[in-house]
Specification:
The protein is of the alpha/beta class. About 35% of the residues lie in helices and about 15% in strands. The strands form 5 sheets. The chain has a 6-stranded parallel beta sheet with strand order 7-4-3-14-15-16, with helices on one face. Strands 6-5-12 form a 3-stranded antiparallel beta sheet, with no helix packed on it. The longest helix is centred in the middle third of the chain and has 32 residues.
Length: about 425
């Protein structure tokens, strides 16, 4: 018989057979159940009412491969194919990048032709950082005009630069902008492809993972693509008003002519499962006061949001009315990753808190590169939580070398799953 819902549960089992259910650490805790909401976080197990601890699904690049996204080692070759078939601006950007890369000699050429994009972009970042702030390259008042030339695919006049050394480093700076433009365009293109109804089945495998999550569970992803939140939205479990871990209740209805208020109650809808994007996202940008906004043209237009079963095209009033989106919130592959804004700080804080309390953490398609020190610091405490029996951790990846890396990092208690993703 199930005990009274107000009764204190004093002998709950702490048993791995319960999966990510299990007794809290410390007996005598009292748990109450709303019998009308299974997703509220309480379940019946073996005759007891117990608290269901949070489950965290942690996604790396391997989790998006079956949806059409490349692993990091194949990213630049995939970007090249898309760029060479893209619009004129992207074709010119790739041509400028390729010219810079192919002119390099010696150790620089070795780095720029490496298949790992982190090696390529780290080399460029180091060179640009060594020269100092970009504004220091140009004469007073000419920094903005120089970048206007860059964005217009025009050469920067020699007399804009302070010194010959500033002019010499400019091609490196320009190359960085060009290759990042091409990478972002690749993910924008994939974001559009994902929006096509016929491609939904490509994410069926991902929905199998996501459908196991309940209210209060969490997805943490290192990926820039939108496959996780798109798939959750298709399941009716996610929306952009609060689903990224920060609130955007100010979004409007895109009527096709002008922005209008959304239907009453629409923006108060809560996401059952949130998606924390630790490296930012395609379609995210920063306002001048460092708030995250969503690109209307490249991002929101290609999401199928619904309210009461009806499609709701969204519009972000924080996006610029004219001109291109700038100041990406996207940590491109580099050993010198950069992310700005208090919202990104909040996401990292939320992820750390979740990993401190979760009962189950499952890593899918994460390669755990040695270079990503920030992620290793974030995940490091899991080793000691496992040793205390507080959390069950599984890493799924078909690459045996990657699984060895996980065991070395988190210890022998981690469960390794070598099945294909």
């Amino acid at each position: 018989m199930v005990p009274d819902l107000g009764e204190t549960c004093r002998s709950l089992p702490n048993n791995d057979d319960l999966g990510h259910y299990g007794a809290p650490h410390g007996v005598g805790a009292t748990w109450r159940l709303n019998p009308h909401r299974k997703t509220q976080g309480m379940e019946f197990v073996t005759g007891w009412v117990i608290k269901r601890r949070m489950k965290v699904l942690f996604l790396g690049a391997g989790a998006s491969v079956r949806a059409g996204y490349p692993l990091a080692s194949n990213l630049l070759s995939a970007v090249e194919v898309t760029a060479e078939q893209g619009h004129l601006g992207i074709r010119n950007a790739w041509k400028a990048w390729k010219t810079f890369r192919d002119r390099a000699t010696g150790p620089l050429a070795l780095a720029l032709n490496h298949k790992n994009p982190e090696v390529v972009l780290s080399q460029i970042d180091l060179l640009v950082t060594a020269k100092g702030p970009l504004a220091d390259h140009f004469k007073e008042g000419l920094t903005d005009p120089a970048f206007d030339k860059l964005f217009a695919d025009e050469p920067v006049p020699d007399d804009y630069f302070k010194t010959p050394a500033d002019k010499e480093i400019w091609p490196v700076t320009e190359a960085r902008y060009r290759i990042i433009d091409c990478i972002e365009d690749f993910f924008r293109e994939r974001h559009f492809i994902d929006s096509v109804a016929g491609n939904r089945e490509h994410r069926d495998y991902l929905r199998e993972y996501l459908s196991q999550l309940r209210e209060g569970d969490l997805v943490i992803t290192l990926n820039w693509d939108s496959t996780a939140e798109r798939s959750l939205a298709e399941l009716g479990e996610w929306n952009p008003f609060d689903g990224y871990g920060f609130k955007r209740r100010d979004l409007l209805l895109n009527s096709g002519i002008s922005a209008q208020p959304l239907p009453d109650g629409c923006t108060e809808e809560k996401s059952t499962v949130k998606v924390l994007k630790m490296h930012g996202s395609v379609g995210w940008h920063l306002t001048e006061d460092r708030r995250i906004y969503f690109s209307n043209h490249y991002f929101l237009n290609y999401f199928d949001f619904r309210y009461n079963g009806e499609p709701i095209p969204l519009f972000d009033p924080l996006a610029p009315e004219f001109g291109p989106d700038r100041r990406r919130v996207l940590a491109y592959p580099s050993f010198l990753k950069r992310l700005e804004g208090v919202e990104m700080q909040s996401l990292w804080h939320q992820a750390a808190r979740a990993l401190e309390s979760a009962g189950t953490v499952k890593f899918v398609g994460c390669s755990l590169p040695e270079s990503d020190l920030a992620i290793r610091v974030l995940l490091g405490p899991l080793r000691f939580r496992m040793e205390r029996g507080e959390v069950s951790v599984t890493a799924r990846n078909p690459d045996g070398e990657v699984l060895d890396r996980w065991r070395t990092f988190l210890g022998d208690r981690i469960k390794l799953d070598k099945r294909p993703l």
